[in-house]
Amino acid sequence: MFEFDCVRARDLGEALALLARGGAEAAVLAGGTDLHVLMRSGARKPRVVVAIAGIPDLRLCEVTDGTVRLGAALCHAEIARHPRLAGVEALTQAARAVGSPQIRNAGTVGGNVANASPAGDLYPPLLALEGRVGLASAASRREVALDDFVTGPGQTKLAPGEMITGVAFGTPAGKFYSGFAKIGLRNAVAISVANCAMVATAPAGRFGDVRLACGAVAPRPIRMRKAEALLVGERLTAGLVEEVSRTASAECDPITDIRATAAYRRHVAGVLVARLVRAAWRDLTGADVEQA
Questions:
Q1: What is the domain extent for residue 274?
Q2: Reduced to 3 states, what is the DSSP secondary structure of residue 59?
Q3: Which of 67, 165, 221, 240 could form a disulfide with 134 if both were Cys (CB 3.0 to 4.6 A apart)?
Q4: 187 and 250, same structural domain?
Q5: Rounded Cα distance, 163 and 72, in Å
Q6: Are strands 163-170 and 132-136 parallel, antiparallel or unpaired?
Q7: For residue 71, what are the CA distances in angstroms to 13, 16, 61?
Q8: CATH number, domain containing residue 231
Q9: Nearest to 149 by CA among 159, 141, 140
């Protein structure tokens, strides 16, 4: 076992100062659901651990001028039940799908984003919502689109001395649908074999703004842009559902591991996309899928 110092930061400024002094040997602790595992396995050996869960500014959920901001230390359970997120079902449903009640009460949005797991359940809804990651160091502040932030499994654009302060996103104007679905090896407390989120509008009875994102089907969570393009401006027919499902499957680049084969992941990604597309159409138009 290795030795390290754990310091509870009183505010963001103190946390950033501690990270600046620790540099590459410092780590941020919020819920600890990922960091503890990495430290116990020896995959990470920080010399300084900066605890941020008690910083009030990092536990906020704010809505200002149509922009939603989630503090990095906001836990999954808080996201799942927060009244300001009641209309963003893709995100609240995903938060409820994360791990066990104990994990949901400890794990945070910042930790989930920083962990950069291809199977992270919060990633697809945040991608579909076109989320932006807030980053801060003692010297600077910046925002990075979530779609650019993750570069590979467990890899991000987070720099030494820098930490995630939160995630921000907007929602479409007017009526919109948002939903989340996942498939795992069991119904609860399971890492996703595949997961998917959709955000969409359908003004005048045709799909308008359409965003689909999937996780656990590529080296990092991805937008299904070819599948999205097929829906824009269209009424939903059974044939179009099948085409969108096939296209989404083809956009995947999965691996085979102990949970599923690559072929199965491609298949279930298409199934989840079709399920959400049908649900979105019913919600937005009140109509069934046309058979023509």
A1: 177-285
A2: helix
A3: 165
A4: yes
A5: 9
A6: antiparallel
A7: 15, 15, 6
A8: 3.30.390.50
A9: 159
